[in-house]
Amino acid sequence: MADLVTTASPDSAKPDPPGRSGGTGGSGHPGHPGRPRRPARRRSRVAERSRLGLRDLGAEALAGILQRPGRSVLTMLGTVLGIGAFVAILGLTATAAGQIDKRFTVLSATEVGVDDTGTARSQGEQPDPAISFTADAGARVQALNGVVHAGVYWPVPLQSPRLGAAPDLQSGSAGDGSGLAIYAADPGALAAMHPTLTAGVLYNGFHEARQERVAVLGAAAAARLGITRLDAEPAVFINGTAYTVVGIIGDVERRQEMLLSVMIPTRTALAAYGPPSTPSRAKMLIETRLGAAQLIAHQAPIALRPDDPSLLTAIAPPDPKSLRNDVTGDFNTLFLLLAALSLVIGAVGIANTTLVAVLERTGEIGLRRSLGARPRHIAGQFLAESTVLGTLGGLIGTSVGVGLVVGVAVSRDWTAVLQPWAVLPAPLIGSVVGLLAGLYPALRAAWIEPVEALRR
Amino acid sequence: MTPVIALRGVGMTYPGPPPVRALRPADLAVARGEYVTVVGPSGSGKSTFLNVVGLLDRPTEGTYELDGIDVSTLRESERTALRGKRIGFVFQSFHLLPYRTATENVLLAQLYNGTRRALRRPAAREALARVGLGHRRDAVPTHMSGGERQRVAIARALVNRPSLLLCDEPTGNLDTATASGVMQLLDELHAAGLTIVVITHDEAVARRGQRTVTIRDGVVTSDG
């Protein structure tokens, strides 16, 4: 195993390069008709074939690379760039896709909205004014498997209401809340928004059922109204009617606009101000368990209005799987093409440099042949040199690529994702590139006639 | 005793058109321990003679026995091995690898003939000592004089203990003083029993051999 050449091949005559026979080179003697088929035993013992151990081959290849270190580094550059781009692109797309997935799953993938389209079948048509959600809409959807919270909300149909922290406020004075939105929202809808309370509590089913005049304020609205503490049981006044503030919401994960509004129970709103009016019709917000959104979007209209599901339109988030495929697919094909291109350029670079080295070292090739090297030893040496160059380029490129991915991930606060199937074989790709690039120069080297080479 | 070189009717015609008769059929024997010089003007067939004797090329006619082995019946791989083991080449342009030390250049001759790794370095040192370069074995050719370089080349040719030392214009790139040093070395090697063939066009070099073979227009004549 240690020897490149151990067995006798039936035809080991020196290779005649195509198109060179018959020249003045003096080697083209086509056939020796009179010579015996096999030499005698004694002779093959006397002329034991030349051999080149793997270790010697490796040492020669390394010496060949190291005698021109600058050139070797430049030669490797193409492979370094190609492999580096390959690893970096795969790593970055995987990292970015993982990041998109993460943001996606946390918020939107568990959110389903249901719009009350009413009887409007096409754009611009006026639907009937009746609210399509039944009074027990929240409970109906809540009963579906996979729903965490669900509730109805709508903007209260009041034309420029007077809103303030005191029953009769001059506009512009402290505590004036004109411009703030007033929403009717049932407790399920509030819960689905994932509110963080800074003070008090949310109103609940009890308030809802009894049409209590209570309100919850968004943080911005509370600031505008000058209400920061609840221990004095403050109230907001809508057109002079007092609503006791039971809680202040500091932040919500969904429906950020609620931070700028005053929320009151839906039944209170229905009793006081009537059903929502077109175009601001009621909506339902549903929070589902992870992965249930598509299913709930399908089931909710039927559960809400089994008599006429078409009155409601459910809006499901895009399927995360298809989204990720879109993103990574676009990235991968484009950039992998570029990486492949730079690999080809790298291969051409190695081939070119090796070819130049072969021509430069013609004298050395002739010398080696005179010292007993067979054509395959010469070919093997140059092939080994180009393969080592490719492998080194691949290793460096992989390191650069991995470093790039990790660097970008760290700078963006992302989690670096590197697939083993992309990273581990990358140096090997460099070896293959080097091997392929070295094939032609190695054959050229093997074809060089010692007689010609030594004349230099 | 078997002659080292035995040419019987060896001739060489390069295929045409028109065919070129580089070497007319000739008989020549070089005995073991002999010191033969080959002279002739440029284009006389000296190079062809060197290529045939050095197993770098096959003659188109006749038989050539090296150490009693009929090399014309051997396959190319066997001829290559025989060349590496039994013939030590010394070239006009030295053919040393510029980035390697004297020792490494000599080691190169042992790369392909199956010499065990452990034995290579001592053999290389011994060969360098034999040509008087024991003190320069770690120098690279670019830091050596022409004479020293040719000595390294001779050491490389000697390291495998060849049957024949085949020198092609060994002094062609050297000044007179250095050349005489190299020729002195060849005399010493001959005195130690080595068979030497020197191809040259320098009369002074040619006179140092025991016998001179002249090639003129492909015709080989020996004065011995």
Strand content of chain A: 5-15%
Largest interface: A-B, 46 and 46 residues
For the largest beta sheet of chain B, what order do the strands appear in spatially? 6-7-8-3-9-10
> Strand pairing plus helix content of chain A: what structural class?
alpha+beta
Average of the residue pLDDT scores of chain A: 81
* Helix count, DSSP H or I runs of 4 or more residues of chain A: 15
Q: Measured on Cα atoms, how large is the radius of gyration of chain A?
A: 40 Å
Strand runs of chain B, count: 10
Low-confidence stretches of chain B: none
Rg from Cα of chain B: 17 Å
What's the overall average pLDDT of chain B, rounded? Answer: 92
What class do helices, strands and sheet pairing of chain B give? alpha/beta
- The low-confidence parts of chain A are 1-44
Helical coverage of chain B, percent range = 25-40%
> Quaternary arrangement of the chains shown?
heterodimer
Helix content of chain A: 40-55%
Taking the alpha carbons of the first and last residues of chain A, their distance comes to: 36 Å
> SSE string of chain A, helix = H, strand = E?
HHHEHEEEHEHEHEEEHEHEHHHHHH
What is the percentage of strand-forming residues of chain B? 25-35%
Tertiary shape of chain A: rod-shaped
